[in-house]
Prior knowledge:
- The chain is α+β, with helices and mostly antiparallel strands.
- About 40% of the residues lie in helices and about 15% in strands.
- It has 8 helices and 6 strands.
- It has helices at about 15-30, 45-55, 75-100, 100-105, 120, 145-165, 180-185, 215-220, and strands at about 70-75, 125-130, 135, 140-145, 170, 190-200.
- The strands form 2 sheets. A 4-stranded antiparallel sheet has the order 1-2-6-5.
- Bound molecules: 3-iodo-tyrosine.
- 3-iodo-tyrosine binds near residues 94, 107, 174 and 175.
Amino acid sequence: MTDIRSIPWDSYREYPVEEIKERAASFRAEMQRRRSVRAFSRRAAPREIIEECLRAAASAPSGANMQPWHFVVVSDPVTKKQIRAAAEKEEYEFYHGRAGEEWLGALSALGTDYQKPFLETAPYLIVVLAQAYGVSPEGRQVKHYYVRESVGIATGILLAAIHHAGLAALPYTPTRPGFLNEILGRPENERPFLVLVVGYPADGVRVPDMEKKALHEVATFV
Ligand code: IYR
């Protein structure tokens, strides 16, 4: 290895192996309780919680440590209304033709349609943007690497952090998300990745009855 500027990893803690097993199982159980919800309460949640979850997300590994992400946290009611209106316009076209039969069939178990009231009711919309390239302080383009992988990892950590904190989230993927750049005034190098809708679930919220695949279906040990 080439000589690099390095520091000892003092924050690493090795637990006894029994404790590692317990930690793995308790995190597994905690993550298995997570559900995507599509009905949110209007109840506010402290911004500090969102800030902490974003700090966790921003700790994610990324290609050449370029950290090619930006998070816009929308709580302003007027902006949320604009986002809902623009999203529903795109989704209307999606559900009335653009999706096609196979896609609509796959979605039927979720009960989704073009209406997205949660974009206004939830206290926070975290718009995750992927930076296709960076821009130096002098205005030069800086190459970013493995952007989707990096932003995907950061988003996964964000979702886990929100769930672990005790709030609900919905990863919402607008069909044609370009409207988000316009509404939020984001630059050309940033592409919307997805929107995490965050808040308390609506009272008595219900979720689709569906299951995850078993370990042997998703993993192969060689
Ligand atoms: N973006 C649309 C459609 C949609 C697509 C997938 I794949 C989903 O898992 C859920 C929805 C919508 O949000 O309604």
